[in-house]
Amino acid sequence: MSVVTLADRELLVIVENGAPEIAWMDGRDEGVTASEVHSIASGSRKTWRRILDDKLNGSTFKGNAATKRGHERESYILAEARILEGVVTLAASGALFGSHHNALHRATPDGLGIHSQLGEFGAEVKSHHADWTFDGIPADHFDQMQWGMHVTGLDWWLYAWEVDGQPGIQHHWVARDDKRIKQLIAQADAFIEWRAAGAPEIDDIPDDVDDALADYARGLALEAEGKRLKAAARSAIDEFAAAQTSAPGDPLRRNGSRAQLFFEPKPDTLTLDEDAWAAAEPGTYAEWVAARAAAAAQEAAALALYTRAKPTAPTFRVTANGGAA
């Protein structure tokens, strides 16, 4: 390990830029990196095992045309980012850094620089396919940058990207989010502890909870089988019922040897035809569109002033061991 200085900040270097690839891979495999932390934080135990297997045995993913192009375009995107307003310096970075608080927390920024107002910053550059549009920073990229800020101690990150076929680059400045970083640290440490414990297949949980999980997983399997059986049988039943009835309010009742059927056609529901309204009465339609937009704007303004907590159900997912996660 060594230390490099970025302005007045000391960054802990785990693997130096230009080191042999085997050293970089070893350094990456020892800890939790920025490219992994989102999957670790949001994924299942199956995801954790896949990540650990990649670390211990080598990843089976060797890249594709998209990742190859992304690497090839990094230097161009960084060069364009150097001339962004406020950027004083920005250099490519190939070193693997570790956190001073926990050296197993690791990241490899695409670049490191200094901004005239924001100070020191890291950079993440991406090359997106032609039909990609910016609709907020993807969650995995956001976590990647927050983890980079945690590892380096920086407060800002530059997200710069190009879209295939479009000239120049686009960019967005991302501020440090300590709440999200705290969550990522907790999940990364849980992964590290699980790995240090030998990556157990089965956790130490109460017997009644273990039984309940098994029953729930069995219920899911039965439910899936039930959906399959219903889907396979529905077409024959629908065809028979449609041939026996013709109008809403004319229900069909039939008893079979093992089940009975009640089938009643329903009338079509009516919905607003905006195209017809706009063509027939453009004036009143335009008034309605304006009123709807004004109401939406008023609601957005009120939301900034008057809010209350709305409970959100936790993510809940049970899968049978050995099944898809």
Explain what this protein looks like in three dimensions:
With 325 residues, the chain is an alpha+beta fold. It has three domains: 2-196, Lambda Exonuclease, Chain A, CATH 3.90.320.10; 207-263; 274-299, no CATH class. Helix content is 46%, strand content 19%. The chain contains nine helices and twelve strands. The protein has helices at residues 21-30, 34-42, 45-57, 65-81, 139-152, 178-196, 207-244, 274-280, 282-303, and strands at residues 2-6, 9-15, 32-33, 87-92, 96-98, 105-107, 111-115, 119-128, 156-163, 170-175, 252-255, 260-263. Strands 1-2-5-6-3 form a five-stranded mixed sheet. A hairpin with a 6-residue loop joins strand 9 (156-163) and strand 10. The model has no long low-confidence stretch (mean pLDDT 90).
